[in-house]
Amino acid sequence: MFVELNNLLNTTPDRAEQGKLTLLCDAKTDGSFLVHHFLSFYLKANCKVCFVALFQSFSHYNIVGQKLGVNLTVARERGQLVFLEGLKSAVDVFFQTQEEPHPLQFLREANAGNLKPLFEFVREALKPVDGGEARWTYPVLLVDDLSVLLSLGMGAVAVLDFIHYCRATVCWELKGNMVILVHDSGDVEDEENDILLNGVSHQSHLILRAEGLATGFCRDVHGQLRILWRRPSQPTAQRDQSLTYQYKIQDKSVSFFAKGMSPAVL
Amino acid sequence: MAAVATCGSASPGSAVATASKSNVTSFQRRGPRASGTNDSGPRLVSIAGTRPSVRNGQLLVSTGLPALDQLLGGGLAIGTVLLIEEDKYNIYSPLLFKCFLAEGIVNGHTLLVASAKEDPANILQELPAPLLDDNSKKEFDEDVYNHKTPESNIKMKIAWRYQLLPKMEQIGPVSSRFGHYYDASKRIPQELIEASNWHGFFLPEKISSTLKVEPWSLTPGYIKLLQFIQNIIYEEGFDGSNPQKKQRNVLRIGIQNLGSPLWGDDICCAENGSNSHSLTKFLYVLRGLLRTSLSACIITMPTHLIQNKAIIARVTNLSDIVIGLESFIGSERETNPLYKDYHGLIHIRQIPRLNNLICDESDVKDLAFKLKRKLFTIEWVQDNYLRQERNIYPPGFSYLLKQKDSAWGEGSLQHSTFLMSFLAKATAFASRLVRHSEPLKQTGSGRIHQAAGPRLWHDGRRQEAPGLLGIPL
Predict the structure, then answer these.
(1) Is B309 near chain A, with CB under 8 Å?
(2) pLDDT tens digits, residue range B380-420?
(3) Helices H, strands E: what count in chain B?
(4) Where's it found, cell-wise (chain A) (predicted)?
C-alpha cells in the first residue's frame, strides 16, 4: 500500500467505498505496481480477497507484498485470500485431464468458449460463509491481468460477459469491490483489446492509467499516472474529475509529484 | 560464490502446506535458512554456472554473452523466457542462440534444443568454442586495453558533454565460472559435446501423420513440444519432484524460429489465421512450466514476418525479456558513418520486474553490436563520439594546434571563428545523412534549396528532438 497514492485517491483502508469497480490501465509501461498497491490495501482493510493472478507466480506477489507489509501466505492460510495462480493451473489443466470443471477449462477447448467456470470459481470463493461470524468486511475481486485472457483465445465479448457477471455478483449483490488490470495496446491495433478496454472503462468508477512518458525513458520519472473518477450510474452527474501525477518507483514505495516537479529536476 | 537455497518454499511450521506437492518455485529469496528445520532437507547447494542477483536474490544464469548479461542486470533469471526477435536475414540471432547453448555445455547444464529446421545434433556441432586458455585471454586483454587507454586520459574538447555520461565497460574475461567468451570462428571441441547431457527435439521426427491428440487450438507441433519439455522436466527432476536427486542442475531450453511456418503455424503467412492464439497459448503454458522448475529458456522468433502487429504485442507481454536485433545489412544505415564499425542495433524491448517493484533497466539505450575479431560485442553507439572526438578537426588544423604558442590555440579568436564555420558546415554535411522528422517545406519558387536541418522548434512549440538514430519504424 503506497501511502502517497492513498492520499491522492483520498482513501484509507478503514473508510474505503464499497461497490466500486476500479480499472487499472497501463500504456507503454508496466502498471503492476498498482496491482500490488491494491492487493496490500485490501488485505490491510480486512477484506476477503479473491485474486485471479494470471500473469505472475504466487511467490512474486508474496515477495513484493512482504515489502509492502502484507504476508500472502499467512493470508491464504487464514482464508482471507483465495489465490488462483494462472501459470500453475494452466500447466495442470494442459497436461492432466481434470474431472470437475477447472476455472481455466477454456485452455483445452479449441473454440473460444465462455468463462463460466472461472466465474463459478470467483463466486464460490467470495460467497459469504453462513454461520460463521463476519470476519471480513467485504469481498474484493482482483484480476491481473485481463489481456492475458485475450491472448489465451477468449473473445473480447466473452471476457466482457465475465466482467459483467462478476460485477453483478461482487459489486451489486455482495457490495464488494473489483480491481481489474487491462493493458492498453496503444498504437498497435489490437481491436479485441480496444473493445475490452472501452467496455470496462465505461463501467468503472475509478480509472488509474499509468503511462510512459511521451519523450521516452527517464531515470528519475518512471511514468505518469492519470486518475479519473467517474459516475457511470448517473449520467447527469457533475463532470468527471481527473488528476495527473508523475511518479517514480522505488524499492518499497512509489513517490508521486506534480508534472515537472520531480525532485531530480528541481 | 554465495550458496543459494534451491528447494522447497514451504513456510516452516505449517503442516498444511506440506500436504500439497512440493512447491519448488524458481524464485527464491537469498537468505540464511534456519538449520535444524524438519523440512525435507533444503540443503544449501550451489549449482555450477549460476549466481544470485544482487538486487533480489534471484538465481541467474549467464546468457553466454557477458555484455548482454550486464545489460540484463546480471544474467537471465531462472524460470524466465528470453525472446529474441530475429534480424531480417537471420544471421546474428543464431549466434546468440548458440552462445546460450554453449554456455550451458561449458557449465555442465542439461540442454534441450528444439528446432523445426535443423537437426539439434547439427546445431550442437556448430556451437562456438569457449575462450578458456590463457593465450586467447591475453589477446583479448590487449584489445580491451587499446580501446580503453586513449579516451580515459584525454579531456573532451568538443563533445565534452559526453564525458559526463556513463561509459559502457568492456568486461575482460573474468576467471569466475559465470559467463564465458566464445570464439565464433571455431567449433566447440567434440569431447565437450559428448560429455554433456542434451535432448533434442526435431519436429519432422516427432510429428506423425496420425495424431491422436484432442483438437485443442494449438498446432500439433507446439503440443508435442510442450509434452516433450514437460516430460524431460518431470523425469530428470528439474521441478523438484524427485528429492533424491544427488546434484541439482539447470535445464537450458532453446527453441529456434518459433512461430515460423515450419512449426505449422500460419501467423507469419496470414493476417488473421485460423490458429492465431496458438503461439500465445504456447508461451503461456511454457512460462508456467518454467516458473515451477529450474530452467531457463531462449526463443528466437521471426517477428518481422508476423503480419498481425497485435500478436507481436501480445507475445512481448507474455515473455519476460525481449531483445530485438536489427542488422544493418541492406538498410540505408549501412552507409551511415555513425555506424561504420557496427553490424547492427540491439534493442532491449522489455525487462521483467521479478519479485520487485523496479527492474534493472540500463541507462544506455542506443546499443549496437558488432562481430569483430570473432567476438560478439555490444556497445553504446555514442561511444563513437568518444573515439572520433579526436578526429573531428580536419588534419591540417590539428597540425596548427600542435604548434607551440600557436595563434590557433584554444581561446583565440582564430580558433573560435574557425570552429564556428567548420562546425556549421560539418553539421549541414552530416545532416544530409541523418534522418529528420520531415523535410522542410519549400516556400516560393526560388532556387535556394534548404536542407532539412535538425528541427527543435516548430510552430513555437518544442517538437521532440528526432535524435540521430531517426524515428524507429
Answers:
(1) yes
(2) 776 555 455 445 555 556 566 656 666 766 667 777 777 77
(3) 13, 18
(4) Cytoplasm; Nucleus
